[in-house]
Design a protein that fits this description.
Blueprint lengths: L4 E6 L4 H12 L17 H14 L8 E4 L3 H11 L6 E2 L16 H7 L1 H10 L12 H12 L7 E6 L1 H11 L4 H10 L7 E6 L4 E8 L1 H5 L16
Length: about 240
């Protein structure tokens, strides 16, 4: 790992974020999303959030910046709205969102009603190690991130457009958190949409300089949104 600054950016608000919030509020079992997870797009607000993010990034990034994105459409859209089409974008599936398998599109209530044995298995295993059938555990995503970090390019700054769970797990890996520390962090540190988390490397260790900063949204007169990506499956 040779990058000196790492900027982790969660995508702007997505249509699935909005649909999930509506389904939870209505007490529904299933989230009415219009596409598979990889193809979910930004909401109109999410597009504006990504544009406001660009106002912050464009003047701050060095010329030799390297930009990565999850292959999921909402992450790529965020990168393009923020940085424009001319900035080279490296797509890397290792920073895609966590796959939920049979729990995909279910609200927390839907999991309890439709797959109660999985709900119980998750409570027994705990959030960190539970792997839904056909999906991934948080530890699986951490392994992807460790692989990605081993190949960080030699650049002053690397930017990664990704997802809330991915941002949190980058911190878990780079700051050498324990399972308990990550659990506490997740309870108290939501990753807002279109927010910027910054870490720096001094040649020996990584230091967190800023977490989930979204002042650029307020500066643009836009609301900040959190939409915890896995609220629908948390016990």
């Amino acid at each position: 790992m040779t990058a000196r600054t790492l900027l982790l950016i969660r995508h702007g608000e997505s249509t699935a974020n909005v649909a999930a919030a509506a389904a939870e509020a209505a007490g529904a079992d299933v989230i009415a999303v219009e596409a598979r997870d990889a193809d979910v797009t930004l909401s109109p607000l999410g597009e504006l959030q990504a544009g406001a993010l660009g106002a912050r990034l464009r003047d701050a990034l060095p010329r030799d910046v390297v930009v990565f994105s999850s292959p999921y459409r909402r992450a790529i859209q965020t990168a393009r709205f923020a940085l424009g089409e001319e900035v080279p974008l490296r797509i890397d599936e290792r920073v895609r969102d966590r796959e939920l398998g049979i729990l995909d599109r279910l609200t927390a209530l839907g999991v309890e009603r439709r797959v109660p044995l999985e709900a119980e298995r998750r409570r027994w295993s705990g959030k960190f190690y539970y792997r839904p059938p056909g999906g991934e555990s948080w530890t699986d995503v951490a392994l992807r991130i460790r692989s990605f970090l081993r190949e960080l390019p030699d650049a002053d700054t690397v930017v990664v457009f990704a997802h809330d769970a991915v941002v949190s797990l980058f911190l878990y890996v780079l700051l050498r958190m324990t399972e308990a520390q990550l659990a506490e962090h997740l309870l108290t540190h939501p990753v807002a949409n279109a927010s910027v988390t910054e870490l720096t490397f001094d040649g020996a260790e990584w230091t967190l300089q800023a977490f989930a900063e979204d002042d650029h949204l307020a500066a643009a007169g836009l609301p900040a949104t959190q939409h915890p990506g896995e609220a629908r499956t948390d016990a």
